[in-house]
Amino acid sequence: MAKRPSSIDRLEPEIRDWIGRLRDQGRTLDEILAKLRELDVEALPSRSALHRHLQKAEIIAERLRKSRAVADVIVRRLGDAEPDKATRLNIELMHQALFDMLSNTGEDGEPVTLDPMQVMLLSKALDHLGKASKDDVARTVAIEKRAAEKARTEALKQAEAAVVTAGGPQALTPELKQAFKAMLFGQSNG
Predict the structure, then answer these.
(1) What radius of gyration, in Å, describes the C-alpha atoms of the chain?
(2) Is 32 exposed, middle or buried (0-12, 13-18, 19+ CB in 10 A)?
(3) Inter-residue contact 16 to 50 (CB < 8 Å)
(4) Half-sphere exposure of 65 (CA within 13 A, CB side)
(5) What is the mean pLDDT of each run of 10 residues along the chain (190 residues)?
(6) DSSP 171
(7) φ/ψ (deg, to 5) at 12
(8) Closest Cα partner for 85 from 171, 143, 124?
(9) What is the per-residue pLDDT for 113?
(10) How many CB atoms lie within 10 A of CB 9?
(11) Which residues face 111 on adjacent strands?
(12) What pLDDT does 45 receive?
């Protein structure tokens, strides 16, 4: 059976936002209720309903503050890290968020239950995470391959320069050049 919306949830969105702004200004429950009476709100919520609503809002706000603090720390630690590290971090954070969501209880203290659409969306998110992880591995392999190729090319240039420096331009024979390429690249000709 679906939960029925609270008396606060049934209020107009503008009024709910206004309640939040009043609370952010430090207004008490009684002051907020007095303002609602002044506005002549049709279905005036009870003091306890308003208190529950504001408690839930504060819990959510605290979770957001903690999440932002963690994100700030991670961003500072990553700095200008390579994109693959950021990708791995995003994948791990998404896995953690999904796990937390499924293993925790809702704001009402009841276990989280998902409707078929939510299950489908979570499945899709996990599928995308798997693909992102696979793409990250492929990107890492390609980057490492390019880096190794660049290092071998640089080593060849340095070896040729060392031979020319030590023995003069005539010391770098085509045979010696080919031997360097064979050692560094596994090439036997060219």
Answers:
(1) 31
(2) buried
(3) no
(4) 6
(5) 72 86 91 86 85 87 79 68 65 72 64 76 80 81 91 84 78 79 67
(6) G
(7) -60, 145
(8) 143
(9) 74
(10) 13
(11) 105
(12) 87
First to last CA, the chain: 75
> Position of tokens 């309903």?
49
The residue type found at 43 is: A
What does the chain come to in residues? 190
The answer to whether 24 touches 31, Cβ cutoff 8 Å, is no
Q: CA torsion 179→183→187→190, rounded to 10°?
A: -30
Residue 31 tokens, joined: 């002051």
Cα–Cα distance for residue pair 111/103, rounded to 1 Å: 8
Domain definitions of the chain by residue range: 1-79
Residue 67: both structure tokens together = 């999440």
Q: Is the dihedral of CA 66, 67, 70, 73 positive or negative?
A: negative
Dihedral sign of CA atoms 106, 117, 11, 18 in order: positive
Whether the CB-CB separation of 72 and 103 falls below 8 Å is answered with: no
What would the DSSP string read from start to end of 41-62?
A: -SSPPPHHHHHHHHHHHHHHHH
